[in-house]
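hey can u check if this looks right to u? its 297 residues, i copy pasted from the old doc so theres a chance i mangled smth
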Amino acid sequence: MRLRHIEVFHAIYLSGSINAAAKALNVSQPSLSKTLQHAEDQLGFKLFRRVRGRLIPTDEAHVVFRESSEVYAKIETLQQACKSLKNGDAGHIRLSVLPVAGLAAAPAAIARFRAGHPDVSFDIQTYHHDEALRALFDRTSEVAFVFDEGEHPRLKTLKLGQGELVLLYRRGEFANVGERIPLSAIIGRDFVGITSSGPLGDILSAELAKLKAEVREVVSAHTFYVAAGLVREGVGVAIVDELTARAMRDERLEFKRLEPAVKFDICAIHLEDRPPSHLAAKFITEMQKSFERILAA
């Protein structure tokens, strides 16, 4: 199948009619019908059957749709990239952020930035750490905001600040504690672990290894926010980044920094061979201010 065949096939498959697909693609019905016929001739089998005025996908069409979906997604990404180039790349900023940055830092930074640059548009993708890096390599994101990114031969890392891991727990669970609490305080307690936490998970694992003690992990969550929700309900305690802890703290949740301190870098990264546009570079500075405000609160 050619790329045009895939585009037309997807439009008909999703809409169920030649008329609706033609409107979606802004082409004539005869042109669309001709393209579909050509695709079926090339494939050697029918993709649709007409039933009471609607086009019903054949069994073969379901397989083609499933196998071609990734290709179609790439076409949409290409179209968005071309649109950005047409409008001027600096006028559209594409970001990939961790969930905590998407909830706390990014909205405030974008609001302040657009107050001074109302013509700039944004596309925000919320990912786990590895997915955020993949978005850079796939060129669906211009800048990624992550934690503690080390050296990489194809990436440029800009350090925006430094945070700490903290112990998140229900208020009143730890009595007579000072400004900090030892990591060993979690030993013997129900613990909410985090999967897909990237470098922060590696940092925490290294610190726990130093204790040479088993941690009683009762639940494994995929985001720090879910872990915080579990802590709020009394499931256990958790080690999270302090941005999450500050965002989730309420009348039921409290947190303490660890003793000794377990720190991590807050970073903006981009492809080394694709520096941020002028406006994207200015937005990175705005994000840095957001992180600083949150950590100073």
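The mean pLDDT is 88.
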